[in-house]
Amino acid sequence: MQRKQFTQLLNDILKPDSIADFCPNGLQVEGASDVKKIVTGVTASQALIDAAIAENADTILVHHGYFWKGESQPITGMKKRRIAALLNNDINLYGYHLPLDIHPEIGNNAQLAKLLDIEFTGGLESGPNSVPVKGRLKTPLSGEEFSAKITQVLNRAPLTSLVRKEKIETIAWCTGGGQGYIDLAAAQGIDAYLTGEASEQTIHSSREQGIDFFAAGHHATERYGIKALGELLAEQHGFDVTFTDIDNPV
Length: 250
Prior knowledge:
11 strands; six-stranded mixed sheet; 10 helices; elongated
């Protein structure tokens, strides 16, 4: 497929213009004019680029790309080496951040809910494109039981703050670095909040507002949206897609 057509296909699926973001969504570095072999991954790290080069890929598709608001603009050092590798090997880089988080079927939040048997009930924020969402556990679990389930499913033990004696029925979640939404979840009387990371103040919010908290890893909670997007492209559009998981303990 021609790169222009591929870009339009991704934009039709993810609708990046529907939400304001902290980075450009879509084609970030231009490479080959034809898209045939795609490597997907969470972050456009040097390790992922090297893996794509080894796979003879012409396109990389990630959740965390480049050119974030507030980052240093000069293309030097690590940034220069990454972009040079893409350009020297004629590889397209596509990045989709919040549009991939919020997609109702293949998004990070939706995929995490599917893995952890959570039933989606709505957005935590008002409006159609809430980044944090809320729902119910299909089977109520104690905090310890839910922590064990996260460990088993994501292969990573979460950091927890378990402050309630009752089983968890209602839950809010936001993959990645969404710890700041815990106060919104607590204000809505939700039993537990799940995200990727924790800040120092997050634990105090959990303790003082009586809401169980789980930080299951930024990378670990965001592996599944980009993987699902690649699978959709392979199954519905015939692309050769390889998901490459570059492990990250954060």
